[in-house]
Amino acid sequence: MSEDRKPDWPGVALHVVTGKGGTGKTTVAAALALALASKGKKVLLCEVEGRQGIAQLFDVPPLPYEERRIAQGPAQGDEDGGDVYALAIDAESAMVEYLQLYYRLGGRTSRALDRFGVIDFATTIAPGLRDVLLTGKVYEAVERNSRNKKARRYDAVVLDAPPTGRIAQFLNVNGEFGDLARVGTVRGQTERVMGLLKSRRTAVHLVTVLEDMPVQETADGIAELRASGLRVGGVVVNLTRPKALDDEARDAAIAGLLPRAQIEEDLAKVGVDVTPELLEGLLEEARSHAERRRLEDEQRERIAALEVPTYELTRLPDGIDLGGLYELAADLRDLGMA
Amino acid sequence: MSTRTKPRVGPLASRLGTSPHLDVDALLDDPSTHVVVCCGSGGVGKTTTSAALALRAAERGRKVVVLTIDPARRLAQSMGIERLDNVPRPVPGVVGSAGGSLDAMMLDMKRTFDEVVEAQASPEKAQAILSNPFYVTLSSSFAGTQEYMAMEKLGQLRQDARKSGRWDLIVVDTPPARSALDFLDAPERLSGFLDGRFIRLVLAPAKGPARLMTAGVGVVTNTMAKVVGAQVLKDLQMFVAAFDTLFGGFRNRAQQTYELLQTKETAFLVVAAPEADALREAAYFVERLDADRMPLAGLVVNRATPALDGLSAEQAVAAAERLEPASGDGDQDGSRTTAGLLRLHADRARRVDREQRMQQRFQAAHPRVPTVVVPALSTDVHDLDGLREVGRLLAG
């Protein structure tokens, strides 16, 4: 990698990561948080869907509503990495915290609200209030100021956000809830949150794989985000297949024209015990790989037409573990995303 | 978690390959199977699996209706359901020589909800409900409404099927839930809210004299008014008052559908991919179905990497390295391709190993769940031929 390369997202304090289910949204969010945690930096990785995906990924016990240090950023040269903290935000805790912070409501009132099922009700059914609370907590972490001296300040916050199909609605908290609550203090709060979300300090990244539906959802998601005045960041193309065969070989594989005799000879030369089944199997693997790659190329073109920065992450054959996350983080740095 | 006791199964009983095979054709052909529910986490191919099962059942002679949630556009087009009109339509191109048929529909959750309201309330009341902002949120974005409406639609289809005889098998795709369990919980959660204490509380000032208000109630309503504004509370009171009479109906219907799911005529298929997350969700689901006494038919593991024996990943990498060092040689083109094939194979072999490990873990915990493993296709499925191929693979 080039040492003096500048990352693509200067000035972005909040990286929102979304993606269709199964595309690796949480993995990419975690890798991005690691990648951003260079020497001396503090990065907060948040989740809001109650899935405990971060804890599973980093192999730590379930996260509470409390910021916990979960990893060290990757070392670069002689320098140690920074710190990655994690927080699982749930609407109920966020509401209690909000009431305490802004209304100085003590535990007794919170308990009364809870007893009557108000918190449960408000965070689940009141139109959009849930999203206001979740994004409100993220806002607090990003904009944490001198008022709260003890609080840790972060250089960047990465949000593992709801899926692509819901992202514009989730971030556009003003919309639905604003229509309903025209007065009240929550109104003022949502306007401040929207101010951050629509500023240049926020970027919404979309994770996809090179398949028809996820790419379609990515295109739809970008259009919706733009229509809502939210800033689209990059598209992370995840889980791409290894590029072991060149164009010519792939065409030959699909047409069934790979040089069978020479392949057999090569294999024998390096000591592979070539049976007809093995040779046939390898050719079939090449054919299906080439077909998949052809579909991937079609989808790649559709993504290129979206005209946003893209970052490709190759699928790791051994799946995602902690080591794999650091590999992906290094890739994201090399690609300039962090 | 289940609290029922089960015979303990020792570790030896759970080696790879000891899971019973899931016989999909036997399940589909069994005339006492009337409902098949496909569930699992997002992105594992649930919709494709449901459509493939429905098509296969139809072409084997069943009269099938498939309820899909969010199919890929091209698949929806090829099934003739790209229009969202909430009514089952015949799928063109189904081979009916065995006497079966296939209808399909895509769920429109808001419309389903609206229809329930319209069917249960007087026209004026329905109008008041439909235009209330709380209803609009509840019916279009409340987490759980889609699950609830899928269950509602299933109940309607089952009733329709019994009455008209138009269908003898309903295949249901479940929504891509945040958690795989949501659709079982959604009706309970929703009716819990609508029936809850808070609702009663909000309703009280609208109905009864003010003296019913206790000190606690005052704190609660005052706080709410301060936080969200008094107008919101008024909207809420109107919504609750209008909706109040429908509560009972909603609860009953949810309960009936829940009971339908517990009968022998229903079969649950848990769909997963051979990945840690998806199999973890599948395991939760299996345990939950058991706890709720829902009949589990088996596990479908989609998108498995096909194994090719005879050459391990390590051997393939070593062989590729031996073919590659002489870079720049003029006549190495062919060898480069061979090395590419070996690298490709190594990548696959490692994935096959990992996927099998994942499955072994699942089996160790749930050794008696009948399982079928469906190999990954090299192309996307977006027409009936593709669905037939998936159906063939599902049948083993």
Give an overview in words.
Chain A has helices at 25-36, 53-58, 91-103, 107-115, 118-124, 129-142, 164-171, 173-180, 185-197, 212-227, 247-255, 260-269, 276-304, 322-335, and strands spanning 14-19, 42-47, 68-72, 83-88, 156-160, 202-208, 232-240, 310-314. With 338 residues, chain A is α/β, with parallel strands linked by helices. Chain A folds into two domains: 14-241 and 315-335, 3-Layer(aba) Sandwich (Rossmann fold); 247-294, no CATH class. The longest helix of chain A has 29 residues, at 276-304. Chain A starts with 13 loop residues before the first strand and ends with a helix. The model of chain A has no long low-confidence stretch (mean pLDDT 88). Chain B has 396 residues and is an alpha/beta fold. Chain B has one domain (11-310, 349-394): P-loop containing nucleotide triphosphate hydrolases (Rossmann fold), CATH 3.40.50. An eight-stranded mixed sheet of chain B has the order 3-4-2-5-1-6-7-8, sandwiched between helices. In chain B, strand 6 (266-272), helix 13 (276-291) and strand 7 (296-304) form a beta-alpha-beta unit. In chain B, helix 7 crosses helix 12 (247-262). Chain B is globular and about 80 Å long. The relative contact order of chain B is 0.16.
* Beta strand % of chain B: 5-15%
Shape assignment of chain B:
globular
Output the structural class of chain B.
alpha/beta
What is the H level of CATH, i.e. the homologous superfamily of chain B?
A: P-loop containing nucleotide triphosphate hydrolases
Biggest interface goes to:
A-B, 81 and 78 residues
Top-tier CATH class of chain B: Alpha Beta
Biggest pleated-sheet summary of chain A = 8 strands, mixed
- Cα separation of the termini of chain B: 31 Å
Q: Return the structural class of chain A.
A: alpha/beta
> Roughly how many Å apart are the termini of chain A?
12 Å
Low-confidence stretches of chain A: none
Residue share in helices of chain A?
40-55%
CATH fold node name of the largest domain in chain A: Rossmann fold
CATH topology of chain B, what is it called? Rossmann fold
Average pLDDT number of chain A: 88
The shape of chain A is elongated
CATH 2nd-level architecture of the largest domain in chain A: 3-Layer(aba) Sandwich
Summarize the biggest pleated sheet of chain B.
8 strands, mixed
